[in-house]
Task: inverse folding
């Protein structure tokens, strides 16, 4: 079988449509605050017109604007800044006569640096305002090293939407952990915003249980879920009874590369 690496340019020999291998993202051991290590690998670009590849791992720095002049160099779009928490897409970018490089951008339709005309999204990283939030990637699954508390909202019989700590601008399968309680029997339904806004019941729910002494501090009904987000990283919660307590933690997400 012909090797598919070390082929960059129009698809004369190379990668199948939509192809991606390797290119796993890691928090850098040398500077986990600012740097991302991108493993070796290759992929078709977003338009399936061009092969992108790296035959060795390389590091990109979010605290410096993009440069392709060295193996370990700046990676942030010059239009972006590090002021406040925000998501950055990690792209592999390339072009005729250019070596493929990692690139960080908050834009879903980025203007690429001069000489680069093709890209493929590899995932997203979260800048907390002071550091890249630590994670591990396993294939198309990203797991936070420390799960994130997204909401402790009191919910009722009218549906409400909450925002999870998962990438925005794309649809992902969020991996969450919910903890629920209420004064009396409770039932919580967790759905995608693209699903029908249905009414939970004693038989149609994601969690059901009994009364607890303190509904504000105790969450006895704990359950893991996978739910599809919208491009605003939101999901829907709805309760059978008013004044229901629901704490939602994000463990990570699965990408649809």
Result:
């Amino acid at each position: 079988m012909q090797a598919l690496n070390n082929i960059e340019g129009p698809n004369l020999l190379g990668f199948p449509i939509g192809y991606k291998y390797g290119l796993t993202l890691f928090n850098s051991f040398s500077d986990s605050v600012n740097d991302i290590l991108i493993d070796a690998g290759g992929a078709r670009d977003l338009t399936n017109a061009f092969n992108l590849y790296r035959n060795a791992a390389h590091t990109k720095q979010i605290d410096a604007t993009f440069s392709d002049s060295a193996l370990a160099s700046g990676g942030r779009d010059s239009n972006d800044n590090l002021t406040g928490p925000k998501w950055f897409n990690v792209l592999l970018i390339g072009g005729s006569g250019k070596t493929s490089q990692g690139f960080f951008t908050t834009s879903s339709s980025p203007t690429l640096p001069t000489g680069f005309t093709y890209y493929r999204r590899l995932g997203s990283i979260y800048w907390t305002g002071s550091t890249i939030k630590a994670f591990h990637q396993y294939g198309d699954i990203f797991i936070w090293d420390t799960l994130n508390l997204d909401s402790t909202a009191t919910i009722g019989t009218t549906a409400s939407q909450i925002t999870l700590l998962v990438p925005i601008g794309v649809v992902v399968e969020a991996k969450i952990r919910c903890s629920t309680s209420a004064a009396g029997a409770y039932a919580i339904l967790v759905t995608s915003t693209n699903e029908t806004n249905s009414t939970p019941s004693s038989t149609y729910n994601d969690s059901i249980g009994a009364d607890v002494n303190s509904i504000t501090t105790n969450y006895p009904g704990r359950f893991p879920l996978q739910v599809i987000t919208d491009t605003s990283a939101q999901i829907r919660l709805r309760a059978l009874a008013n004044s229901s307590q629901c704490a939602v933690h994000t463990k990570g997400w699965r990408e649809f590369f």
About this structure: Confidence is low (pLDDT under 50) at residues 1-7, 209-220. The chain has two domains: 20-133, 146-254. Residues 20-133 form one domain.
